[in-house]
Design goal:
Elements (H helix, E strand, L loop, with lengths): L7 H24 L1 H14 L5 E7 L5 E7 L23 H9 L6 H7 L3 E3 L6 H10 L12 E3 L1 H5 L6 H16 L3 H13 L2 H11 L1 H8 L9 H6 L8
Parallel strand pairs: 3-4
Antiparallel strand pairs: 1-2
Helix pairs in contact: 1-4
Amino acid sequence: MLSCPLNETQLQYIRFKRVLEVMLALSAAILSLPLFACIALWVVLDSKGGAFFVQERPGLHGKLFKLYKFRSMQKAGNKEPFKLTTENDARVTRAGKWLRQLHLDELPQLINVLRGDMSLVGPRPIPAELYTSCKEEIDHYDLRHCIKPGITGFSQVWLGYTNTMQGEALKWKYDMYYIKYLSPGFDAQLLWQTLFFHQKQKAVHIPRVFRRVLDQLESPAYSFAKQPDQWFSAKSISKAS
């Protein structure tokens, strides 16, 4: 088992980041209370079930926590097997379609930030069932859990959602890149891109900002899974700026 790859400067930043995120999340939650109420009512009126979706997901060091979202799908039966969401999934409700498109279903995760389960920025938490499969298929997968998961993150902004093991392996590369270059400036950049970049705008900005980095990460020939400890201590990939 590899040790945490973060350097001392990053560890100090994470302690400061926690204080800053509590202030930001609390402010955002208070300002969003009217929106919370409207969305909750809309979800309940649109389909059968409660307003919230609660699911256990692995967080820091793989420890399970309860993640909160506005419910965007039909309520599943207790005996239904786990199934990843797919494009044009029939289980998505009318309200859920809009909530997912605008990412408003993620708003209740501000509660997770205040509870200390999550950060505003970090690797996205995945369902526990998928986590078990990823650990079996992807070498050193748990390295992405050396920091808290985030509401948004580098892979979330530039790669988006995936429902294949190949996609999860690529997300792991993105997460490793984020952890290596974790800094206040990188987090601020990702928050800005999350709030103000739409999909079409990303396509315009990729060549200037991250295209070279993304090309390296997405190349099948580029791999650091066998010796990630050496990769973290080396300048083996260009830093986006």
